Amino acid sequence: MNITNGRPGVLARGMAGIAVVALVGGAVSSGALAQQVSKPKPPARERSAPDERPPLPSSDFSVRGTVTPKGEATFAYRDGHLRVEIFHGAERIMVGLVDPEAHTIIVLPDLPGMGSVAFEMDLPPEFRFVSMPADSRRIGFDTVSTEPCEVWRGTDPDLGTPVQACFTVDGIPLRVQATTRQGLKVAFEATELERGPQDPAAFDVPEGVRVQRVPPSLQDMVPGGGLSP
């Protein structure tokens, strides 16, 4: 995983250890990388106390990764809001603007003839990780590439299916596992992470786009309205 604080970097693992290559135009030592990338360490206690909650994002970030069964996705966070982009191959098929407190998402399908309309709907089950279920508990620790994270698991209150996510201690989701309303198991795993400021305009509905509210009974008909393409 490429992990940076606002600047691109590449990690290459060699026979004798970890070599850092092409960071800000040149190689740097592992000590210099440690200064630029300060990874918060998880607490020593593995299981959470009953009143503990999953960590919330404490700063802006952008994370990109693979989606199972197919596709890729990016999540960008700024000031309490999340922007989601879903890709099928090189083609972007959807942008979603998530309001975690309202449990809603505005879907902007990136499809021909649909550039002037967006759909607001309840947050689909596969996005439950942005506001984990009330019964969520930390069940252990893991590492996604080189980034440590806490594994939290809860139960979707509507479907009764498990929701599991691995968060850094500063609240960044690196791995997500959930189930759609159609019963499809989907997963996301991060491959790139960048901590740093995000463009405020990316979290607003574009000018001239009309937002339509979609009732729950019709949400499955919204093109690109889920995590899996």
UniProtKB/TrEMBL annotation:
Biased composition regions of type Basic and acidic residues, renumbered to the chain: 43-54
Superkingdom classification of source: Bacteria
Stretch list, region Disordered: 33-66
Name this protein carries in UniProt: DUF4412 domain-containing protein
Lineage: Bacteria, Pseudomonadati, Pseudomonadota, Alphaproteobacteria, Hyphomicrobiales
